[in-house]
Amino acid sequence: MADAMSLAWHQYRLERRMFWRNPSAAFFNFALPLLFLMLFGAVFSGSQDDLDVIVPGIAGMSVMSTTFSALAMNLVFLREQGVLKRMRGTPLPSGSYLAGVFANAVTNTVVQIVIVVLAGKAFFGVDWPKEYVELAVFVLAGVITLAALGVAWSHVIPNFDAAPAYVNIVFLPVIFISGVFFDSDDAPAFLRDIAQALPLTHLIDGLSGAMVTGATLGDNLSGLAVIVIWGAAGLALAVRGFSWESRRA
Predict the structure, then answer these.
(1) 3-state secondary structure 2-63
(2) What digits encode the pLDDT tens for the residues 25-61?
(3) DSSP 3-state of 248
(4) What's 155's DSSP letter?
(5) C-alpha distances out from residue 217 to 132, 206, 208, Å
(6) Is residue 248 part of a domain?
(7) Is residue 115 part of a domain?
(8) Angstrom distance (rounded) from CA 185 to CA 191
(9) Average pLDDT, the chain
(10) pLDDT by residue (tens digit) across 155-172?
(11) In this structure, is residue 156 part of a structural domain?
(12) Which residues span the domain enclosing 185?
């Protein structure tokens, strides 16, 4: 166990170095959500109520972009390039390798949440989080769930050329329906019904409670349950369909 953890740590450090050597990945994970935060923050600068919606919404979007989107595209690339197959044939335990990849995504998420919280406090009138325990619980639940769904979705993507289209066909509608840029309660009824079935909606609600309204974890248990259900389904699909080998003939 100690050797496996040590190897996972070394793989994690390698993943961090590889991440920072890929400017496009750094942009997608960090700059893009902050760009949205700046743009919508400027648009709604005269309305604190709207800013109170935008900041936790962007935080939720950041969790999804650094887990679901990043893992779905990265795993397809690694699978189709034969990297996963080669890693499978090395002495590095599979669990240590996957732990390093997952920990890299978690680190990106934590850094992004910290940046959004600091930006919210410095520029958008959102005070420091009121419920740190709730913030940590929802971020953890969101990371596990969206990461599992990202891995599961990577099984559907046939090749890396198609990966951006496959990822965005899920990512873009979900962030709009879930109320990243507006209060989902103001949406038409049919969109509200769809939003209530999505994990990102409840992740944003939990983050809003922790960062803005001060709602406790107990007030958002039903939303947390929805995230957990999606997480369980995502984990089952991620494990069942995982392949170390390319699908190309």
Answers:
(1) HHHHHHHHHHHHHHHHHHHCCHHHHHHHHHHHHHHHHHHHHHCCCCHHHHHHHHHHHHHHHH
(2) 677 667 777 888 888 888 887 788 888 889 999 999 9
(3) coil
(4) T
(5) 10, 8, 11
(6) no
(7) yes
(8) 9
(9) 88
(10) 999 998 999 999 999 999
(11) yes
(12) 2-241
